[in-house]
Amino acid sequence: MTVESLTMDRASTDAEQADRSRAFREIVEPELPVLLRAARALTKSSADAEDLVQETLIRAFKAILQFDGAYPRAWLLTILRNTNMNMNRRKRPFLLSDGNLWENATPAFGHDHGSSAEESALDKSLSTEIQKGFKDLDPRFREVLFLVDIQGFNYRDCAAVLGVPVGTVMSRLSRGRKRLREHLIKTSALEGRIK
């Protein structure tokens, strides 16, 4: 190898690294809050969620130059889901089992933005009936309700987190809401609220 070829190889590597860093800043960094929310939903632990996001960011950084630029959130959530599965191959898959999971969630990286007005109102308005109805739902419906109605994910992002088609998310969401409504009507009727 000549000195010229070594210099050209190093220049192309430096340029590639600069392109990778720029693409990472533009595509990945804006999605960090979404990745953290999804990771918390999958792991139910802030520390595990941060580890999962870190591994996801490493994989995304390595693959960023192969990414076509379409649907970056879905691409990142797919990496997150696959990374989670790889990290927990020997563990039983996590299904949301506690409707109060969001109460213990803490911001990552030491940031505390306080709870929003929506979160405060939601916390106050959740009655024991709703919590019981939520806990009694089939885990498939509970996961989708949690991600869409509580975490605020859109259908496509929820589908990417769960690894199911968007139509399945919509169907499970509809059925879960219906079953929760039926539970509330039944409970209210038993307490004499509805005639």
Q: What labels would you give this structure?
A:
9 helices, Arc Repressor Mutant, subunit A, Rna Polymerase Sigma Factor, Chain: A, mainly alpha, 195 residues
Characterise the protein shown here.
This protein has 195 residues and is mainly α. The chain has two domains: 1-92, RNA polymerase sigma factor, region 2, helix turn helix motif (Rna Polymerase Sigma Factor, Chain: A, Orthogonal Bundle), CATH 1.10.1740.10; 117-195, Arc Repressor Mutant, subunit A (Orthogonal Bundle), CATH 1.10.10. The chain has helices at 3-28, 32-43, 46-63, 72-87, 117-125, 128-136, 139-150, 155-162, 166-190. It is elongated.
Outline the fold blueprint.
Layout: H1 3-28, H2 32-43, H3 46-63, H4 72-87, H5 117-125, H6 128-136, H7 139-150, H8 155-162, H9 166-190
Q: Largest sheet, described in full? A: none
The general outline is elongated
CATH architecture of the largest domain: Orthogonal Bundle
How large is the radius of gyration?
A: 21 Å
Counting DSSP E segments of at least 2 residues, the number of strands comes to: 0
The SSE string, one letter per element, is HHHHHHHHH
Secondary-structure-based class equals: mainly alpha
Strand content: under 5%
| Global mean pLDDT | 77
Give the distance, in angstroms, between the N- and C-terminal Cα atoms. Answer: 88 Å
Number of domains: 2
> Unreliable stretches, pLDDT < 50, 5 or more residues?
93-99
- Kindly provide the name of the CATH class of the largest domain: Mainly Alpha
What is the helix tally? 9
CATH superfamily of the largest domain: RNA polymerase sigma factor, region 2, helix turn helix motif
Provide the helix percentage.
55-70%
